[in-house]
Structure formats: C-alpha cells, structure tokens
Design a protein that fits this description.
This protein is α/β, with parallel strands linked by helices. The protein has helices spanning about 10-20, 60-70, 105-115, 115-145, 150-155, 160-165, 170-180, 180-190, 210-215, 225-240, 280-285, 295-300, 335-340, 400-415, 430-440, 455-460, 480-499, and strands at about 5, 25-30, 40-45, 50, 55-60, 80, 85-90, 95-100, 220, 240-245, 250-255, 260-265, 270, 275, 310-315, 325-330, 360, 375-385, 425-430, 470. Keywords: Carotenoid biosynthesis, Oxidoreductase.
C-alpha cells in the first residue's frame, strides 16, 4: 500500500483517487478551492442552477468502467438520459438543422433531408473514415500511456494505417476531402474546439470526436453534469480517500524522486506517489520551479495553449418555443474567429475578443435547474483568447467584460434568439476568472491545444520524468473532455500499480 497524494480535485484527480483507493492505497486529495469538481461545477442562485463546465457526456463506457472497478455500477448512482436531438445548429446560410441522437445513419439522414442525398452520402463516407481512424488510434493513443516515438513507430509499420490516420492532414483538410457543403465543413470544424484547437491546424485524427458522439450517443444527467463529479467523490470517500479542500499546494517535493508536497500553509505531507491533477503548466512552472521540473517545462513550452471561453449565465423569465438542450449559432466568418482567438492571420500576434463569434447555448429543460416552469437557465459560451495581460488579452480591463456581454446578447438577437427583455440577471465569467478559479494558465480550458501534426506527442505524459510523479486530467495525455479525462485516470491508476 502506497501513500498517495492527489493534487487537485477536478474530475481527473477524483477519478484517479477513486481508482487508487479501491486498489487499497492510502490516498489524500488536496484541492485549493473550497469545493471539489474543478471545471465541472455548479452555480445556484435564486432557484436557478447552471452547469459551469461540460454539459454533455459522450463515451459513457469510460465512467461505467470506473464505477464497476470501484464498486456498484454507474446506473445505480446516476441517471443517464439520452439527448435527442443532440444539438440544434443555425448556419449563416440560413439553414437550421437538428442533429439526432440515433446513430450515424440518423445523422446522415438529417444531412440528406437538409441538403440533399449527396450531403448524406458525403457524411456517411466521412464517418466511415473516422471509424477507421478510431480503430487504429483508440488503444495506442487514447487508452495506453504514450511511449514516445515508439508509439508512432508502431503505427508506421503499416503504410496503409499511416495513410488512414494521415498525420500530415488537418481536420479542415480531411473535411475538404469528403464534404462539399460549406455547412458540413463548418459543422466539422467545430469539433476541433472540443480540444481547444484550430481546425486549420488540428490533426485529422480529431475526426474521432464526432465519430464517438454519433456512435455512442450524447447523454445528460438530470440535475446537471456536476453530479458526475459528486458521485465520483462519494465513491472515493467510500474507499477511505481523504479530501481536503481550501488546501493549496505550494510545491511538489522531489530529490530526485517524489517525497511529498508542501502546502501554502507550510505544512509538509510525505508521500510515496504524487498524482497531479492540476494543469501541467502550473505543475512544472509553479510547483516544480527548480531543475527537477526543467524537462516538463520544455514539453510545455513546445505546445500551443488551448483557447479559453467567455461565459454568461443567464436567468430568464418565460419560455422559448422550440428551444433545444443545445444550440449553436454559427458566424459568417469562422476563420476570423480562430484568427482572433489564436492571434493568427489578420490578427497575427494580437489575439482579441471575437467580433462575430460562434455562440453556444446550453439550456436544459430540467425542472431541477429553474425556480418554476416559467423560467429558463441558459449557459452561453463563446470561444475566447486566453487571459495574458503581458503579451495578449487582458480580460480584467475596465468595462471589457460587461461591454462584451452586451455585444454577445445583441449578436444572439440578430441570429434569432433575443432574450434581452427577458433577462432577470446574468453572471459573467471571463478567462481571467477561470484562471483564478482553477489555476489554469490564462484560463486555457484544455491546457495545450491539438494544433499541429505532433500535438499528441507534445502533450505531457502521464508518467513524469520524476520517479513517483504522475499526471492526470485534461492537460496531460490523452487530452481534454470528459471521456479523455476519465481515460487518463485509468492509465494513471494502472501506471501507479506498476511503479
């Protein structure tokens, strides 16, 4: 039995703690905030409730495995409800489209009905290619720890497999090979943002994201997805895991192997193993500032940071006819959005708030998240550059957040969802707020992006160069999003068992 400290009670840290506790280890979780959950949070006010992080669960098998490995099945703890439609899309061409949650064939039928038979056939062909990429990459790149160049060499033994994955091709490039309708290409581009990335630079392998969503379904938990984190917390506690909130860690102690951590209070906690669930950049730059963290910092410095998000939580009176759980309002110029967010193209070196952004709305028809049946709680998100006052965007600039929120509400009105006269109150969360709340660098949602053909190999590994130190969560391998964070916890639990 090892003494294990988990730094950070986000979903990755909690999942790893539950798995390690079930294996018989002595586990303590240290969380700097007053509550657990990390980015998977909940805000309640005046009878309204808002998920402040993910609003959709895909690939639930990852969490079914977690619950089975640690006790009773997932469905004994939580109710998973399929969302249908998965999402409603409004395109600049005027097309409106519901994407059904009844499998890949249903998605192709929806495209056929909207744009003609060829669009349906194109999407079927694209999905078939995405399925092939999934089959080739799932085990070596998602369910196993990366083994440096050897992981890539294993794929390279078969030239046909390399051609299928096409590491030289971007997600945008893959879409152009299969999809002729601009609406379908725009639809595909959005999936790059699931990893905080630019579709023009993100690898074609991200085609696996829509493949997973359409093949394994889209799910919701009544009462909010924050309950997934709460249920995992309960499971960890049931195995004797200790969770200490409001306990920020100042330093990971290692010389040369892990010895424990020092809290900001000065208390030193010894450990045989430390599992870091905080952003990798925070770990290697702040918690390991000396030479022991130099190798990790080199990895971080090579990777492009992910995008962030500007969020409004809207408490609305009245109901919206025909409102879906998820709605996406696309802009006229998607490339301009990515240029603003990443400081590329016309915005080279100067990221800025997006002038004409994609607007994402999550508005669950959930009685547990509103005071009564005559109100709605909306989570509104637009992609945004990170908070970086020194060289980029300063989201703490006076009046910026409020004026930008007003602009987004005006854009929503022009695109057919005018809620300005129904607004009771709003809460704004900028990338700067996200950085303060979660200690993610600049409020980067996913740590590093997947921009670039070698991006998977630039993401920090689950086993660090320091003996006894492991990384879990969205900023480490295999990446961000609920399924991948859950997979990272499974990988780390297995690595610790073999350490």
């Amino acid at each position: 039995m090892a003494r294990i400290i988990v730094v950070g009670a986000g979903l990755g840290g909690l999942s790893a703690a539950a798995r390690l506790g079930a294996l018989g280890h002595q586990v303590t979780v240290l969380e700097q905030a007053a509550q657990v959950g990390g980015k998977l949070g909940l805000l309640r006010r005046d009878g309204f409730g808002f998920d402040t992080g993910p609003s959709l669960l895909t690939l639930p098998a990852v969490y079914r495995d977690l619950f089975l490995k640690t006790g009773k099945p997932l469905e004994t703890e939580l109710e998973l409800v399929p969302l249908d439609p998965t999402c409603h899309y409004r395109f600049p061409s005027g097309l409106e489209l519901d994407i059904p949650n009844d499998g890949p064939a249903g998605v192709s039928r929806a495209w056929s009905a909207a744009l003609g038979a060829k669009a349906g056939q194109d999407w079927t062909a694209f999905h078939r290619r995405a399925a092939q990429i999934w089959d080739l990459t799932r085990d070596p790149f998602l369910e196993s720890p990366l083994n440096g160049v050897r992981t890539l060499l294993g794929l390279a033994r078969n030239p046909a497999d390399v051609r299928t994955v096409a590491p030289w091709l971007s997600l945008r490039g893959l879409g152009r090979k299969y999809l002729s309708a601009p609406e379908q290409r725009m639809f595909l581009d959005r999936y790059a943002t699931y990893t905080g990335s630019d579709p023009r630079r993100a690898p074609a392998a991200l085609a696996t994201i829509p493949f997973v969503e359409h093949s394994f379904g889209a799910w919701y938990i009544p009462g909010g997805l924050w309950q997934l984190g709460a249920a995992i917390t309960d499971r960890a506690l049931s195995h004797g895991v200790k969770i200490r909130t409001s306990e920020p860690v100042a330093k990971v102690l290692a010389d040369p192997k892990v010895e424990g951590v020092r809290l900001e209070s000065g208390e030193v906690l010894p450990a045989d193993v430390v599992v870091s669930g905080v952003e990798a950049a925070h770990l290697y730059r702040d918690l390991l500032p000396g030479p022991e963290g130099r190798g990790g910092r080199r990895v971080i410095d090579k990777a492009a940071p992910s995008l962030s998000g500007f969020v409004m939580l809207l408490a609305l009176r009245g109901r919206t006819p025909g409102l879906r759980h998820h709605t996406v309002l696309f802009p006229g110029d998607y490339d301009a959005e990515f240029d603003h967010v990443f400081g590329t193209g016309a915005q080279a070196g100067t990221p800025a708030p997006v002038t004409d952004p994609t607007v994402y709305i999550s508005a669950p028809d959930d009685p547990q998240l509103r005071p009564d049946n005559d109100h709605e709680a909306w989570f509104v998100l637009v992609n945004a550059p990170r908070h970086d006052p020194a060289t980029g965007m300063n989201w703490d600039a006076p009046d910026l957040a409020e004026s930008y929120a007003t602009k987004i509400l005006d854009i929503m009105a022009r695109r057919g969802l005018d809620v300005r006269e129904r607004l009771l109150w709003k809460e704004i969360r900028t990338p700067a707020d996200l950085e303060r709340d979660t200690r993610s660098t600049g409020g980067a949602i996913y740590g590093s992006s997947s921009n670039g053909a070698r991006s998977a190999f630039l993401r920090p590994a689950n086993r660090s160069p320091i003996p006894g130190l492991f990384l879990v969560g969205g900023s480490s391998h295999p990446g961000g999003g609920l399924p991948l964070v859950g997979l990272s916890a499974a990988i780390v639990a297995d690595l610790v068992g073999k350490a």
